[in-house]
Amino acid sequence: MNIIVQKYGGSSVADKEKLELICNKIIKEKNKNNDVVVVVSAQGKTTNNLIAKAEDYTNNNEFISKKDLDFLLSTGEMQTASLLSLMLNSKGVKAVCLTGAQAGIITDSNFGNAKIIDVVTSNLISYIEDNYIVIITGFQGMDKLGNITTFGRGGSDLSAVALAGALNAKKCEIYSDIDGIYSADPKVIPNSKLLKEISFDEMLEASSAGAKVLHNRSVNLAKECNIEISAKNTFRNSKGSKVRKNIKEDFNIHFITKKDDISKICIVGPMMLSNREAISKIFKIAHDENIEVYMISFSELAINIIVDTKKSKLFMEKLHEELIEKK
Ligand code: ASP
Ligand code: MG
Question: What does the pLDDT read at residue 291?
Fold first, then answer.
């Protein structure tokens, strides 16, 4: 099999005209005698709108069910996948749409931030062998009980890489509305340069530090599976950028990036470096509340922690409760 995995992001699938264009790109690839597997995101701002709707309908209740929210958010990608498959079929092209679950993506039950634990490709392969173009919903899988799970915002990249790895694909192409990977966010630094290629490790560092072009977990998985990623523009022919194993010595600086919407929390007390009890409580709270710690520094008198601004109040409340009130 000559499998090509193509992933199209939210802005690439935002309306009918864009989906028409993508149909043509897919058909062109299929006509080159390739087996095409397509992963799609939700159209435009759909996911944001669904989140806002869930918040509105629950009056912003902080105890909203993450399982139900995943169920709701997964419908965004389902709409794109079914529309694209319907369009291809209406042009006489054999296509089928599958959810992440139907495509065999098995995850743990960490709703909203699920990890892939296996990809069972039998269903997918039988469609590919039957010569179908297979369209798969990005961003989601299924836990062992059959519940729909999602991977977290921007998670469709991860679906594409996981499928490319499991199917041993020839190519994994990630399409968006920019030409590829730049030395800085081109919306912030207009003079940023398009990078022809970048190593997995540097890309991973940059993605984790705020570069929005690829999801950091997708880069990590690509490195694990040694899957080369091509980041390309949906709307114009460009060579794009490749993320791959680096085999040459190169001492140039490649990226400058920044992370938005983060807050620094400072915990002050004597002898912090040796306060094992406090340190273990801090990490336990971060774990229990699903708070990602982006950076941490210790000194004799303080522990400084950088987290998402959205989670910073909750983190402070829990820290205060555990480290001060309960004393
Ligand atoms: N639709 C999801 C999001 O907007 C996943 C993705 O686009 O990759 O976060
Ligand atoms: Mg999206």
Answer: 94
Cα distances (Å, whole numbers) of residue 305 to 186, 256, 257, 298: 29, 22, 19, 9
Q: What is the mean pLDDT of the chain?
A: 95
CA-wise closest residue to 135 among 1, 8, 2, 43: 8
The predicted model gives 206-217 an average pLDDT of 89
Evaluate if residue 247 carries a pLDDT over 80. no
139 Cα nearest atom in ligand 1: 5
pLDDT digits (tens, 9 = 90+) for 130-139: 999 999 999 9
Confidence of residue 210 (pLDDT cuts 50, 70, 90): confident
Length of the chain: 327
Q: Which pTM does this prediction carry?
A: 0.91
Ligand 1 center to 42 CA (angstroms)? 6
Task: For ligand 1, pick from 137, 151, 153, 234 the residue to mutate: most ligand atoms within 8 Å of CB.
Answer: 153
Q: Helices 200-208 and 216-225: crossing angle, nearest 10°?
A: 160
Largest interatomic CA distance in the chain: 72
Q: What is the pLDDT of residue 250?
A: 86
261 exposure class (CB count in 10 Å sphere: 0-12, 13-18, 19+): exposed
Atom of ligand 1 lying closest to residue 41 CA: 7
Reading the block at residue 1, the tokens are 């099999």
What residues are paired with 133 via a beta bridge?
Answer: 95
Give the number of C-alpha atoms closer than 13 A to the C-alpha of residue 56, restricted to the C-beta side: 6
179 closest CA partner among 221, 222, 223, 242: 242
Count CB atoms within 10 A of the CB of residue 292: 13
Spatial separation of the C-alpha atoms in residues 208 and 259, rounded to whole Å: 9
3-state SS, residue 250? coil
Q: Are 210 and 260 in contact (CB under 8 A)?
A: yes
